[in-house]
């Protein structure tokens, strides 16, 4: 009998560790994004920006992003600190370089290209 034979109890452990390794490799290939979205209350434009950003993130960055929504009426000092001059404004803080986008984020392909998630459209 060869010593290379695996018992049935060793197979699940091997499969589990392989899946864990593959998951870790996938996670390593995905960058984590950190966004701040500045809005002015719950205006229709602010709500569209929030909805559009959630759609972009869930479609293209599943589980690899953090989003902080900041109402400039409630936290005006944060807006001043980040030099926000119009709302809605999206700030991509990570990964570098920092990028800012103004508007309701409805031009999905341009936003994705600006975030460097996809290549720029021609």
Key words describing this protein structure:
41% helix, 122 residues, four-stranded mixed beta sheet, 4 helices, globular, Glutaredoxin, alpha+beta
Give your account of this protein's structure.
The chain has about 120 residues and is of the alpha+beta class. The protein has a domain of about 80 residues: Glutaredoxin, CATH 3.40.30. The chain is built from four helices and four strands; from the N terminus they run H-E-H-E-H-E-E-H. A four-stranded mixed β-sheet has the order 2-1-3-4. It is globular, with a radius of gyration of 21 Å. The protein starts with 9 loop residues before the first helix and ends in an 8-residue tail after the last helix.
Derived from helix and strand composition plus strand pairing, the structural class reads alpha+beta
| Content of β-strand | 15-25%
Element-level helix/strand string: HEHEHEEH
Rg (CA only): 21 Å
The biggest beta sheet, please?
4 strands, mixed
Q: First CA to last CA: what distance?
A: 64 Å
Extract low-pLDDT stretches. Answer: 24-28
């Amino acid at each position: 009998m060869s010593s290379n034979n695996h018992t049935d109890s060793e197979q699940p452990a091997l499969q589990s560790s392989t899946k864990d390794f593959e998951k870790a490799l996938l996670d390593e290939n995905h960058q984590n994004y950190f966004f701040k979205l500045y809005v002015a209350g719950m205006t229709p434009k602010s709500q569209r920006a929030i909805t559009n950003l959630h759609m972009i993130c869930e479609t293209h960055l599943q589980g690899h992003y953090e989003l902080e929504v900041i109402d400039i009426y409630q936290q005006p000092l944060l807006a001043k600190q980040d030099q926000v001059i119009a709302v809605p404004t999206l700030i991509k803080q990570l990964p570098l370089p920092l990028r800012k986008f103004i508007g309701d984020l409805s031009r999905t392909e341009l936003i994705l290209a600006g975030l460097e998630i996809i290549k720029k459209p021609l």
